[in-house]
Amino acid sequence: MSVGSSATKRLALATIVISTLAIGAAYASAFGRGGVPAWAGWMFAAGVTGALVATLALGAMRRDRGLGRLVGPFALMTAMLGAGFVAVFALPDSGAAEPLLLGLPRRAAIVLYGIGLLPTLVLPVAYALTFDDQTLRPEDLERVLETARAARAARDDEAAP
Amino acid sequence: MKPHGMLPHLASPTIVAVALLYFAGVVAISIWSARRTRTAQDFFVAGHGIGLVALTVASVSTSVSGFAFIGGPGLVYSIGLGAIYIVLPASLTNVLGAWVLAKRMRLLGEVRGLMTVPDAIGARYRSRGAQGVAGVAILIAIVGYMATNCLAMGYVIDAIFGTGIGWGIWTGMGITLAYSVAGGILAGIYNDVFQGMLMALASALVFGYVLSVNGGMSGISHAIMPAFPKFLGPWGTMTPIAALSFFFVFSMGSLGQPQGVHKYYMLKDPRQLKWYPLLKTVGLILVLLLFFGVGVGVKALVASGRMAPLASPDAATPSFLLGFTPVVLAALVFSGVAAATMSAINSFINIGAAVVTHDIPVALGRKVGNELYWGRVSTLVIAVIAAFVAQYSGTMVAFLGVFGWGLFGSTLVPALAFGLNWEGATRQGAIGSMITGLLVTLVFETLAFFKVYSFPAGIAISGLSLVLSILVFFAASWLTRASAAGQLDADVRIVMES
Asked: Of the candidates B94, B103, B418, which has its C-beta nearest A124's C-beta?
């Protein structure tokens, strides 16, 4: 494993652990006497964003080149989820007077369109466009198929009388 | 409308006729599939021979179940936008599954001839114990899922045909069993394709009617905001942590749902994975339009006085369909709901049968002689037990259904999703995390059900259980890190590095 990709993997794993601890801390705060503190929601949102993006990165990175061309889409994804949650928490609650955005109250629109729908245009498209050089290269597939053929032959030998 | 069970009575000649046509289609597909099922590999993983489009549509269909059409819109109607966090991760979960699990599981299936999710865990950690614990966890979660879906199926069939709930359960189970026993997962897949396409079409049409009846999204917002100001707030009537718990459990937790993950084995060619996440995400969003649309649309109709407040939130979809759409479309959706519950049952029966005939014997160091035959027998036995549980366990069914998703997530996500992507994971970490997820979920769900102890408002047991199982997985793997390299076979390492 290259030094760069090893460091990226360690970063992804550390992010998953720290993010999970953040979510755990948010849950733990709810056991306090004064009810759930305001920071708990922020911490939970940061934790879930970190855990998701780091898990995506852990699955997508390659042993020899880390995230390669996927760094951009992952950075964009983190920014979209992060900015979405920050906006939802930070924008004032105007009740029935909240302005509409694409037919929904502004903060609801950010949730539905920004956090819910927009990611469809980023990661699934990035997955398809980088599949042949990042996710499953022909030489990798051939190596696995060769291993599978050898394993089948060994099983057949074992089964033979 | 007269309340009938949990749903209004729907019987009309058109609805009954469409439902009968629908079931006839299911039977025809099942007979065709049964003729192509010859081996255990055919029965449990469709002979690793399903194409991209079929797998995508079937996977969408399995992902949603009847909840997306009845319970989901009802939940949106009750608690507003907070309920949307259940489906909000749909744009991420498919690509998450594709990157984290799909390629590795498909290639592991190629190398080792695997059939089940516990198979993958057993192969990854070279541990029959880990495979057995995963199998037991899946079996426990399946009992809940199956019983809940059986009951839902009984309610829907009763509402359409007026059979009574008991006969509804057994009629639906009879049809499901006919195709599950005969055609295994192959019949399930092709029935799911048929059902998935109809569900996507029906959902998109219903969403169109919701917008048309209410004057678009702006009309819906203008109707709801003065009457129910919190409803379209970013968390609905929930707290931020409660809503975000949904988001966490239904995104990360998706990596542990065997009914979805198991399908990666079935793809004919691993290179077809390229377009799988995009196609499935688009399909899933189409199907989920009804979930969101009917929930907010009915609330807007109630807010503007065009519809009386619902007696039960689950009546949101039936009330809207019967009052505001053509009867043929209503019939299609009702049949689709019945079919979706059958599809979920088929999927879970198949996974449960694989655990009984394959994973648990493997964990005990034994091998079942004729897995196809015993797979069919187990299918029958599991189905009958689930139907009995659904019919006779009263409120316990709701309890069992609550924790299915969470139990799958907290027991399987760390061992499977992180384990297949991190060479440093150990079997001690995997087994520790699975046992933690199992115990925390079962103990606290039981205490809550019997009103002995409940967590403070906003804390989801499934969310906390997932957090704890992830932390135990990493902590135990770190403590036993010296054994990690020795637990990884060469062929598994090749798959993980590919």
From this structure: B94
